[in-house]
Amino acid sequence: MNKKGTYILIGAAGGYISGGPIYQRNKALFMRQQGWDVYYISCCHGKVYIDGLDEFIIGVFTFIAKPAYLFPKKYQHKLIDYVLKNIPKLSDEIIIETGTDYTAYWGELLAEQLKGRHIVTLLDEYNDKINQKVASFYQFKYNRRELACISNEVMVHIFGDLIPQANVAQYSVPCYCTNSLADTKPSWVGDIPTGDLVVGYIGRLDKKAVPVIIEGIKKFAKENVNLQIVFLCIGGSDVKSDSDNILGSFSEFNNVRVCITGLLFPIPIACVRKCDLIFSTAGSCSVGAKASVPTVRIHQITNAVQGFVQKIGCADYFQYQNAHTVYDYISLFFKGEFCPKLEEYDLSNEWIMAEKCFEKHLNLLNKAESKLLYFDFRKIKLSWKKRFYKYSMLILGMRLHQLFWKN
Length: 407
Description:
By secondary structure, this protein is of the alpha/beta class. It folds into two domains: 5-177 and 355-404, Rossmann fold (3-Layer(aba) Sandwich); 181-344, Rossmann fold (3-Layer(aba) Sandwich). It has helices spanning 19-33, 73-84, 101-114, 135-143, 152-159, 209-223, 240-249, 269-272, 284-290, 326-334, 350-366, 384-404; strands at 5-11, 36-42, 57-60, 94-98, 117-122, 147-149, 181-182, 197-202, 229-234, 256-260, 267-268, 277-281, 295-298, 305-309, 317-318. Strand 12, helix 9 (284-290) and strand 13 form a beta-alpha-beta unit. The N and C termini lie far apart (51 Å).
């Protein structure tokens, strides 16, 4: 196969699991399959949990976690040159893809240095750091069709107030990250407790949906003290307080046992099937549904209960009548109220599904503005504190600056 060019992904690979690095691993495999040389630049250290992602990683550069516009131009150039020294091979055609606000700013500078194209495929469902102060950057990328979100709804939610046109025309691509199941049954799955009802959650423990699920379980547990309930969290966090908060939420309940698997990839299908009912959000809903476990979707932005997944990849959810909360769904489900039976899913079809999604990425890429232009970060106006942060680096140098601003 003829090589097409160099494709560089920038993200956070180490220390945690989420849909982001799973998607980026899938994208890296797909682009290599298409004939590209693919490299991954990570902004955080730690164990790489996602199988296959580590083979693309060329280095870890923690400064990328800080927005590039907070660095004087002198240091921007130094740091970009440092990254470039670690890239094994560069082709004439270069595409850089980023997925978060902070990586996007460095991606733009790297693309300018390499005279390549920079695509922002924003993987966030919401982002408070994208505000009026940085809106000019995203307006620039939107106008050039170099900005996409994971759904049209998310683009309106994040950019509707910042980019008026985004309320009319949205650019989105499916970022396939639900190929997380493995048809295995490790011995530890047998240690997961059982009860009268096992309520599951799949995803990161810091998701905003988690407290909503906890409140629903607590209310059900209070009304059913004779039942033994298990709350099985299939996921983890790199922040210990996230799991501590969940455990603490049920400290006064003698009829609720909490089991947290911790960071886990891939997820054994036998583990998911320990659940009687699963609540989840965004792409994680597909994981429960693929295991044929009744799965209720919680909206990734509003945290509203949307209903049972009826078919994988379908946004038409089955709703209980007069049921609006997690508690309502648990109660009616436990009473034997009908819920749709999910078809057996063939895990061997995962990559076929991924390829179909990534074809849409290529279509969007082909519609980007043909002439390469780059954003001028001088257009971002900084507060006095951020200006002080930026220009004190020139006086202190990077090492002393890092120590000075550590706290």
